[in-house]
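Question (not urgent): is this output format expected?
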Amino acid sequence: VMESLFKLTDFEVRVPLNLNVLDADGRPVVMDLRGALNAWLAHRRVVLQRRSHHRLGKIANRLEVLEGYLIVFLNIDEVIAIIREADHPRDELMRRFGLNENQANAVLDMRLRSLRRLEEMALRTERDKLVAEQDDLNALLGDEARQWSFIASQIRDMKDTFIKVDRRKTVLAEAPKIDFDPTEILVEREPITVICSANGWIRAMRGHQDIDSDFKYKEGDSAGHVLHAETTDKILLFADNGRFYTLSGDKLPRGRGFGEPVSLMVDLPADSDIVKLLRASDGKMLVAASTGHGLVVDMQGAVAQTRNGKQVLNLSGSARAVACAIVAGDMVASVGVNRKLIVFALEEVPEMGRGKGVILQRFKDGGLADITVFDKAKGLSWQAGGGRVRTEPDLSTWLARRGGSGKLPPNGFPRPAKFT
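Got this back:
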């Protein structure tokens, strides 16, 4: 339920993030999240260096004072005599023991109870700790890798500090995939028959009409493609420019008219024709160009989100896309304009998201006319005219490796060379 709400409501939204900030030099700049985080890390390193230098200064001052104290303990009787008898004890201490002004003032400000033997031991212990800390800080300032390691430990300590307040409730993980189509929720599922004329006029009729029915077309137009679908389907239009265009089944024009030009719904070039009409499903397709090149493509991967469609079959020169077949078997049959037929295994054709593909069939003249994918155990079938379907079970004559030129088809194969 929650996953559905994330998809259908504003519970989960994505927004672009650009931060207007002042950089380390005080200049206003625009940063993305990565840039802001890197700037913050650089700032943390500067802070670490400043704090370390400040601490080193404090340690140096304290060590200086401690050295003065230790001199006092070594000459305690003489120091007491100087303090009691000299007119200017600070100057005399500085002259007699080589103390600086800061050390001399510290000695004069020392309390009498600090002269205990135990206090001397404590001062020596403090001096040793400060010297060790001084060496550690100097080593830290001289090693960049160690500085970043220290910053990382600070961030981990920060996490431990805040996690004690209230443990994070959000689970950071990949978003779960939910098995539903939002279109099916918002659109009532109804069967439709999609009709696209040879000139690219498309419409939908309610219910699944007989595909062989005599549909009406505009004057000068003729039959093109007929497809059974549902209002919740995505309709794929494969054009001879190698692009797939996507239409929503519920958005197709209805009624008894002739429909509307496809070019009003997608950016189909005026010089491009529709090769195939399909329902977008979880299957795969085999697409081919007039040059004999082809590839297998995932049907969902061909669904376009924009009017401009999605380029799947790359074409060069005067080549055009001429065929598209749903993968429903383990063998491929390819026939050329020269009526040469070749049959080979589907596994010889690679699956790609986009590309020129590989050579399915070679031609000395003409080009590729049609392709089909079929089950070897059932044999190769084609429309023989008059609504009859002919099947050829023995394909040994035409069986070869992909890229051959093929041989003449069985007697009765249609003219022009088409499987459907």
